[in-house]
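Quiz preparation item.
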């Protein structure tokens, strides 16, 4: 989780724009956040992101990252 937040904003956006890469980044960031902070909402989001349709959530997170400088529900 912290490695993603330490990246420059442009690199974060680029990682979240590429379909296959954003899915992998989402899975790694979401599950590592859940392991550290726990929580039911984070667990539900982790499970949703893990299925292949999580790529769409990655694009939504790209917009969220542009606006708020972090992933949604992170």
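Solution:
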């Amino acid at each position: 989780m912290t490695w993603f937040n330490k990246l420059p904003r442009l690199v974060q956006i680029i990682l979240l724009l590429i379909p296959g890469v954003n899915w992998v980044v989402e899975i790694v960031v979401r599950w590592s956040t859940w392991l550290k902070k726990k929580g039911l909402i984070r667990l539900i989001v982790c499970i949703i992101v893990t299925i292949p349709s999580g790529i769409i959530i990655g694009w939504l997170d790209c917009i969220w990252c542009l606006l708020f400088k972090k992933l949604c529900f992170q």
